[in-house]
From TrEMBL:
It comes from Paenibacillus arenilitoris. The keyword Ubl conjugation does not apply. The active site is at D53 (proton acceptor), E215 (proton donor). Belongs to the glycosyl hydrolase 43 family. This is Family 43 glycosylhydrolase. The chain crosses the membrane at residues 12-31. Gene3D superfamilies: Glycosyl hydrolase domain, family 43 (2.115.10.20). Keywords: Glycosidase, Hydrolase, Membrane, Transmembrane, Transmembrane helix. GO terms for molecular function: hydrolase activity, hydrolyzing O-glycosyl compounds. One of its GO terms (biological process) is carbohydrate metabolic process. Pathway: Glycan metabolism; L-arabinan degradation. The record marks D169 as: Important for catalytic activity, responsible for pKa modulation of the active site Glu and correct orientation of both the proton donor and substrate. It comes from the Bacteria. The keyword Iron does not apply.
Amino acid sequence: MLNVTRTKRRYIAAAGFILLAAATALLLYAWNRPEDVPASTYTNPVFEPVLADPAVLRGDDGYVYAYGTEDDWGDGEGSRIVPVIRSKDMTEWEYIGEAFEEKPAWKDGGVWAPDVVNYNGNYYMYYTMSVWGDQNPGIGLAIADSPAGPFVDQGKLFVSEDMNAYSIDAAFFLDEGTPYLFFGGITSGIFGVQLSEDGRSIVGDKFQISGVGYEAPYIIKRGGYYYFFGSAGACCEGADSTYRVGVARAESIKGPYLNKAGTDINYADGDTILGGYFPADETQPFVGPGHNSVIIDDNGDDWIVYHAVDAGYPKFGHGATRRPLMIDKLIWDEGWPSVEGAVPGTGEKEGPAFARGR
């Protein structure tokens, strides 16, 4: 009887241990499952006074970083050469400084439209060097070992004369281990080119993915399709800015990229998913949204990150268009992304979700 009792006790203890382990596992799952990741709230704009042409990424330290075009913020401090901001939730941002300790010197001009990616164990920034009206802008590369920088310039990658295409607004995309860079302007169309494995030079010939009318390309891949985001219209005319974001998709990284009607955007427009309010007023103040990035939160939702113009405060005192940072959720329906109302969100909204402790 004693041996039977001891055996029963062992079974009971073992069963209790298994039940405890199972309960712990269920609690951990409940704690970490995506639907339990808390969402923040936000009101556009999420950062002021300006962060134009924003690039965004999640750093290995858990912060979300955003980088913008060189701009004079009108505060007497002069131009910020690629301002860097960061956030834990994409709704409250802190300015942490400039990306460069020394401005790239291989060409005269401003440092515009950075795209920053985590690649080859470092942070690569592809950026534009240009001035207004420049007929030969170019794209350079800088590298850092931290998303906060400082980024060390590696020099010119190419200029427009090298590519026989207007070379601004670089966007990096890694496709099954092969790196590509997309670039282009409204007057020439959007192009892609393969990069070398180290990301420091181009391989082969460029290929065209859109006709004239778009700039600021951005590529993501979802559900077997490659999605092109591009900006059209006037970016920097203050309250008269007509910037807007169009979308098309392809089954190959090299295209053809088709709109919903099935027409190649080399010959037609993409589908506009984000435009301005016309006419703007106090309740609907934003015009000229565009030059976007996309980031995924911890619930797996996509967020479009872009700049826009507040028609009530469209320019700095020195005359430059003031373009604060905006975010909105991308809504997916039958394989196509959209933004609610196809306009910048106003009022308080539910924001991105990020895991506890990040």
